[in-house]
Amino acid sequence: MTRYVGLIGYPLGHSVSPPMQQAAFDHYRLDLRYEVWETEPAQFDALAERLRHRSTLGANVTVPYKETVLPLLDSLDELARQIGAVNTVVNKEGKLSGYNTDAEGFLRALRQEGGFEPRGKRVVLLGAGGVAKAAGFALARAGVKSLAITDIVGERAQGLTSSLRQLGVEVNVLDGEEESLEAALSNCDLVVNCTPVGMKHSPSESQSPLEAKLIPKGALIYDVVYNPIETPLLLAAKSVGARTLGGLAMLVYQGAAAFELWTGKKAPIDIMFAAAKGALMERETRLPEWLEAIYELAKGVGVRTGLNTEVKVTKTGRLSFYASGMNFAFGNCRESLAIIIISTNAEWARRARVAHLADGIRKNGWWGRDDSAYWRIGVSDKKKLQEVESILAKVCQARLQ
Fold it and tell me: One of 66, 121, 133, 200 is an active-site residue; which one?
C-alpha cells in the first residue's frame, strides 16, 4: 500500500521539500509519496483525521503551524517540548508523535557549511517565532556566550527570552530602537535571520531585515530563508564583505532528520541536496507564464513551418529567437524592458502579438505599442522591471547558453 507524507503550511508556493523528500524516498525505492497539503487557517483543525489515517506515515509542519499543531499530537519528544514547536510528525498506528528537527538542521548547517563553532560566541537573533525558538535552543545548548533577540511582537521575544534563560544563557531583548540593535550588531559574531523577510512569494520578498549599513563585516550572516538561494539580506551582507550562510543546508539537514524518523533509514544527504538545489534553480530560471508562451511559440516555429529556428543569447545579453523571416528579442530598451517581435512575416507577428502579448499586458498593467514591424511592451513600474530583468538574466545564464 502506498503511504503518504504531507507538508502542512500556508502558503507553500516557496517550498522545495516535496522534490527533496521524494528524491530520498525514490532512492530507496520506497512506496511513499510526499505531497503538499496547503492548509488555510480555517481548515487546520480538520487535519487531525487525515494525519491519523493508516495511509499517512507522517508530515512536515511549517509556517504558520509549528506551534498550532501541538494540541493535535499525542506525544512530544523532549526537545520539541522544550522548544514548544514541532516541524515533524510521525504517525504510528494512529498515534501522532511530534519532533523538532529544525534545531538539529540549524546547528549542523552552521557547523558543517558555515564553518562556525557557536560555543562562547555572541549572537543576534532576528525573530522569535517557531524557527527562532529552534535556533535559540540549539545555540543555547551549544554554549553561546549571549543572545540578543528582536521581534516585531515584543511579547513573543520576551517569551523566548524567558525560556532560553532557563538553560543558563545570557539573553537580552532588544527594544526595537535602531540604536540598541546597532549596538548589539556591532559586538556580535553571528547574525541569524529567523523571520520570513526576503522569502519568495511573501509580501516582503524583495526586502532585507537589515540595512547594509547595520550589517557587521566581521560576523557570519545566517539567513534561514532558502528561497531564493541568495536573499536580499545575503546580498546586502556580501556587499559589505561579510561572510554568509543561506538556509538551504538547514532545510536539507532538518529534512534528513525527518526522513530518518519516518523511515528508519539513513538519509541520502547528497541526493537531497541535489534535488533541493535543482528545484530552486529551476524555479529561479522559470519564465512567467505569459513569457513562457512566447518562448514555446518561438521554439515551435521551426516545427510548424519547417523553417530553421535558433535560440541564443546576444552579445548585449538579450534573449533572442531567430527563424527565417522572424526575430524575437528580449532585452533592455533604454529605461524599460522591451519585448520586441520583428518580422517580415506579418502573419507571425500578428499571431504572436494577439495570442500571447495581449494577455501579458492586461494581467500586468503594462502599456504597449503596435505597428507593422514590432510590438513593444514597456515597464513603468521599476520593481516589476527589476523582477523581469532578473528572471531573464538567470534564464540567459542557466538555460539558453
Answer: 66
Q: How many domains does the chain have?
A: 3
CATH number, residue 266: 3.40.50.10860
Q: Do 302 and 369 have their domain in common?
A: yes
Q: What is the pLDDT of residues 207-263, one digit of tens each?
A: 999 999 999 999 999 999 998 899 999 999 999 999 999 999 999 999 999 999 999
Structural domain ending residue among the three candidates 195, 228, 246: 246
Residue 66 a catalytic site member:
yes
For residue 213, the 8-state DSSP code is G
Kindly report the length of the chain.
401
Task: Say if residue 228 is preceded by a cis peptide, omega within 30 of 0.
Answer: yes
CATH number at residue 211: 3.40.50.720
Pick from 253, 260, 244, 176: which is nearest to 212 by CA?
Answer: 244
End-to-end CA gap in the chain = 44
Does one domain contain both 123 and 224? yes
Query: What residues contact 121, with CB distance under 8 A and at least 6 apart?
Result: 144, 145, 189, 190
Strand partners, 369: 376
